[in-house]
Inverse folding.
């Protein structure tokens, strides 16, 4: 390949990578906008904003990376929806909550995590379901999406989410491999 | 192309190697050599930039050639604009050079440059109208219609001139 074609190839590669980044970030902005609805009911604005930003960056990076990593984003978002929505709705409706704290929230996060974990386990039938990158992406997206909601319950909520995810995913994954 | 769209970087080189000659051949058939290479390069860069948006349901080659066709149209429009500007410049130069002093020539050149700058801000249709009017030609439209077009184009040129030179 001549030097001018090498230069053109380099230009092409740069255009490709920038194109992937633009494509990924457009989708990440949509995800962040939806997740940002938690800011309306959250008790810790800074931490929740940080979590939403982390989610946007994570989704951008995974979509940019592509292949099994990009494939894991949608299952992660779907699985993270329940642990995200439950605490937000609990806080918004004030059910079992006082003005500043929701003692019910950590339990809600565990329950949401169980549902999310089970949903994650079932997603494994997708293409790339046997790839480690798929699971890394799906689990991390689920955890961050769920955290946006469960941050309202503080560390107890996050820990509840993690426990719930494990409790939900483990039986499904064991049943699949058996 | 499908693999490249999914993020498989290993697919980049094979796609480049197969697509580049095809894009060059396509643009060469529709543009002069000087413009064909530039258009082909820009088309390739645009194809790679949009590779992630490629729909695997579609054929890759027609999709890529569609992007190349857009670059061919762009190159033709630029070439047409260059020809129009050159014709206008030659016209002004000719008129200014007839029995003019060096100062007059310098003034005429400055005026020409300022006029070119103002013309660049106008839409293509306005430039075409003014060029035809300057040549004393008229397109195949009614006289009143063409006069109206000239009037509007001159009004927009005056606006652009005032904006740039404050006169």
């Amino acid at each position: 390949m001549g030097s001018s074609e090498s230069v053109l190839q380099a230009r092409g590669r740069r255009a490709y990578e920038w194109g992937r980044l633009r494509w990924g970030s457009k989708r990440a902005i949509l995800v962040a906008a939806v997740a940002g609805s938690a800011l309306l009911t959250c008790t810790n604005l800074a931490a929740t904003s940080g979590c939403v930003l982390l989610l946007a960056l994570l989704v951008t990076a995974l979509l940019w990376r592509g292949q099994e990593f990009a494939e894991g984003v949608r299952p992660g978002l779907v699985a993270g929806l329940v642990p995200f929505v439950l605490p937000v709705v609990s806080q918004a409706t004030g059910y079992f909550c006082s003005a500043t704290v929701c003692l019910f929230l950590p339990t809600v996060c565990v329950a949401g995590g169980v549902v999310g974990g089970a949903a994650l386990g079932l997603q494994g039938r997708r293409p790339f379901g046997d790839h480690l990158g798929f699971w890394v992406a799906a689990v991390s997206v689920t955890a961050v999406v769920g955290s946006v909601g469960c941050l309202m319950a503080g560390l107890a909520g996050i820990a509840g989410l993690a426990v719930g995810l494990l409790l939900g995913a483990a039986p499904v994954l064991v049943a699949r491999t058996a | 192309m499908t693999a490249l769209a999914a993020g498989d970087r290993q697919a980049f080189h094979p796609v480049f190697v197969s697509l580049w000659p095809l894009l060059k051949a396509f643009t060469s058939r529709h543009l002069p050599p000087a413009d064909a290479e530039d258009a082909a390069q820009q088309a390739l860069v645009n194809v790679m930039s949009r590779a992630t948006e490629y729909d695997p349901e579609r054929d890759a080659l027609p999709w890529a050639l569609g992007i190349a066709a857009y670059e061919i149209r762009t190159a033709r429009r630029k070439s047409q604009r260059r020809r129009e500007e050159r014709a206008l410049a030659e016209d002004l130069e000719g008129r200014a050079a007839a029995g003019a002093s060096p100062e007059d020539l310098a003034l005429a050149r400055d005026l020409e440059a300022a006029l070119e700058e103002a013309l660049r801000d106008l839409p293509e249709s306005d430039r075409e109208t003014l060029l035809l009017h300057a040549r004393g030609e008229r397109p195949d439209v009614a006289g009143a219609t063409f006069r109206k077009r000239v009037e509007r184009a001159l009004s927009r040129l005056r606006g652009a001139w005032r904006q740039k030179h404050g006169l």
About this structure: Residues 83 and 138 of chain A are 14 Å apart (CA to CA). Chain A touches chain B through 18 residues (CB under 8 Å). Chain A has seven helices and no strands.
